[in-house]
Write a structure and sequence with these properties.
- By secondary structure, the protein is α/β, with parallel strands linked by helices.
- About 20% of the residues lie in helices and about 30% in strands.
Length: about 210
Amino acid sequence: MNDKRVVIFSGGDLYPQYIDEIRPTDYVIGADKGALFLIRHGIKPDLAVGDFDSISPQELEHVRAECGNIFECDPVDKDLTDTELAIEMAAREEPGFILLMGGTGTRMDHTLANVQMLNRALQHQIQCAIMDRNNYITLTGSKLEVIDRGYKYVSLLPLTPEVTGITLEGFRYPLDNATLKLGESLGISNVLLGERGQISIAGGLLLVIQSND
């Protein structure tokens, strides 16, 4: 099993406690103002990426001075968001897991784009999760072990028009070879019975969201 992790700090909502999620062996990427956030909290990212249009010229100079490896792109002439660019750069490190912090916030377009971007990592055969103060979001196209991380609920939402063959073990409300279609709420607000639960699907892409109120 590939235990290498990449942790990305993006430009959404960021809080000091997120720093505690970084392990000593992690490869850390700061995307746009996520790089400045890391530096201000005593972490020098292994890589800073983006157009850096969310920080001032003086702050950008600070990032350049503190981060030895920086990839800058033009804020107008680019096709990828800073987060998507960071995920592509993370994939080049060939990790087994990517954790995205600051991937959610007040910009719903960016939040939804980042949730959909979980599939980009999956296409690289890399498990990826988005974490914020109330949610832990991941995606599966086959099997997934859900670990109790202190969240109250576990919800299942299709990312494709339908997800087939859904089987749950270790949940209060089990499913056996079930199908979920876009717009259906059958998978909302399930609960783990113990420390771990198992999800398997036969077809489609399934979002698994652990959440608190």
